Amino acid sequence: MKLIKLDAIDSTNDFLKSMSSQDELENFTVVTAENQTKGKGQMGAKWNSEVGKNLIMSVLVKDFLFHNEEVFNLSVVVSLSVLETLKSLNIPDLCIKWPNDIMSYNKKIGGILIENTLKSDGRIVSVVGIGLNVNQTNFDELPRGSSLAVISGKTFDKNALTLLIAEKIKEKIDLWKTDSLVFWENYFNSLFKKGVPMPFKNLQDKNFMGIIQGVSPIGRLQVLLEDDSVAEFEIKEIQMLY
């Protein structure tokens, strides 16, 4: 597993995508940075991190996705990899807020951004960006944010955590062919607020009540509505109000 450490970069995802387009990089190559000036979240949202305090990493994943209908499988694998790594560190009350925010005690402690590139030969090459709040303790401007240090009262070795997560992703990808149904079941069972009546807001700014039922094979959130129908939503089509 190749590890590239940077002091500062605009985006570890962009850096790794650029490298992968020019060289035949080793699968599971990891890029980390102490500071990221143009961090991204889902749908282009900005993601900011206190310098030197948090984990900023991107992982190259090849030879896992082969069809566009499969892309959410990687979200399942990566989300569970992060969750299981944190459980091994005794971080409590962990869950996944669809599609792949990492939560503890209703607070967001991390997020995942996966960017896929279709190569000319039909291969899908993925860059998995992971941002995890580790040793940052000031969240005055992020009332819904927290960190491993705040939750546990301890500081953590970011380098060790990077390797643990990268190794867990590789391990789960190796197991996917035989255990994919188990992975999906674990993902469903780990969903934030699954089965609980919750208020939501749609793209028209209309509030409504619903109950999360699960996630479709292509990654759409399935919500039971008040008329007993089940609607499916894409990322950014729905916002949970919690």
Automatic annotation (TrEMBL):
Sorted alphabetically, the keyword list is:
Ligase
Q: Which InterPro entries does the record associate with it?
A: aa-tRNA-synth_II/BPL/LPL, Biotin_CoA_COase_ligase, BPL_LPL_catalytic
Do you know which SUPFAM superfamilies this protein is assigned to?
Class II aaRS and biotin synthetases (SSF55681)
Q: Which GO terms describe its molecular function?
A: biotin--[biotin carboxyl-carrier protein] ligase activity
Superkingdom is: Bacteria
Residues annotated as domain BPL/LPL catalytic: 1-177
Kindly list the GO CC terms recorded for this protein: cytoplasm
- Answer whether the UniProt record assigns the keyword Ion transport to this protein: no
Q: What name is this protein filed under?
A: BirA family transcriptional regulator, biotin operon repressor / biotin-[acetyl-CoA-carboxylase] ligase
Biological classification of the source: Bacteria, Pseudomonadati, Bacteroidota, Flavobacteriia, Flavobacteriales
